[in-house]
Amino acid sequence: xxxxxxTTSPNTRFTANMDxxxxxxxxxxxxxxxxxxxxxxxxxxxxxxxATYQDLLWTVLTALKTSTDxxxxxxxVVGAVISIMEISQRITHSKKDARELAGQAxxxxxxxxxxxxxxxxxxxxxxxxxERFVTTLEEIQSEMNRLMxxxxxxxxxxxxxxxxxxxxxxxxxxxxxxxxxxGLAVRTEVAxxxxxxxxxxxxxxxLNLHNKEIFVxxxxxxxxxxxxxxxxxxxxxxxxxxxxxx
Length: 246
Fold this sequence. Notes:
246 residues; alpha+beta; four-stranded antiparallel beta sheet; 7 helices; globular; MLKL-like_MCAfunc; Adaptor_Cbl_N_dom_sf
């Protein structure tokens, strides 16, 4: 599969993952942009792109905090994401990585909120995925709190470990996004299948009169004909006559 490149600013360029999807940060920025555009209309970009993006993240979180009140499982997600956002604004070490994690978490929250609000319910499999997501967010929050350590010596001593941990969390958030996306696709396919099955059942009920067989054939000049169990022959053109078809 060929790789693809994506640009989020004139000076920032990313390469797609091995599965062809845009990188997590690109997907998160796109979800945030689409959410804000859909909810509030187009917002003008400020001079500082990063500051503008952070403002958009807070705008999204404020809206989602209100909209998810009807779904208790999502309130835990919102609370954890808000905590991560707050910490990412205050830390001075690994700030860029921390803010990218926060933005990625907001992007996944948008994905969850859209699906739940559309369906109006949370299925047991989805609830399990949400609970795992909350656990990941809580671990990210705990690690970010460690980055608040004011000791410069501590930060230097744990630099490699911290960077490796943040990359690991980035991967886990990417996995969570994939899990939610795949779950959405599966649930949509199942819903379509059920609707199709209901349509077929309804059609069969209308055609299967008194559990007797109905045959569709063609007469000698090729006109579609339905042979009814009562002996009537119904022609497509509307000419009906009685015939011994047994």
